[in-house]
Specification:
Length: about 150
């Protein structure tokens, strides 16, 4: 009975951790107001026709499976609603390098006599190949806007 409950809780916890690590993470700095239901999304300040103030800044970073930009945008909009923003101005998108993997392979080739005492007749050749690849994550930068009354 106890093992069954423990297994269910452990499974639920691991599932929650995996789902959370897959979703975009956000960092917000700014003010908060009562929640809003409708948030407009802008990509250029020239498209904003109403007077506004910037109430905060947010960065959305893809999770471990590198969420798409629209997925990150949706997460930012949800946070904007929770913080009481009227609009979101997305001003930058990037692929940020978060880690670089380096792999080196070395091959040693020995040619010449294979007899035990003939080691001086051997030629030793080494070749090395190194490859690197960057691990990137999609990132969106945005401002939360509050319309002036």
């Amino acid at each position: 009975m106890i093992n069954k409950m423990y297994t269910k809780r452990l499974t639920a916890t691991l599932l929650l951790i995996s789902v959370c690590s897959c979703s975009p993470s956000i960092q917000y700095l700014g003010k908060a107001y009562p929640t809003t239901q409708n948030v407009e999304v802008f990509l250029d300040t020239h498209d904003i026709t109403r007077p506004y103030t910037v109430m905060g800044k947010i960065d959305g970073l893809a999770g471990i499976f590198n969420n798409s930009f629209p997925e990150i945008q949706n997460r930012i909009v949800q946070e904007a609603k929770a913080k009481g923003a009227d609009a979101v101005l997305i001003y930058n998108m990037e692929e940020r390098v978060i880690h670089t993997n380096t792999n080196t392979n070395t091959n040693i080739n020995i040619t010449g006599s294979t007899e035990h005492r003939q080691w001086l007749d051997r030629n030793i050749f080494t070749t090395s190949t190194t490859s690197t690849n960057d691990v990137t994550r999609n990132v969106l930068h945005a401002d939360f806007l509050k319309y002036r009354q």
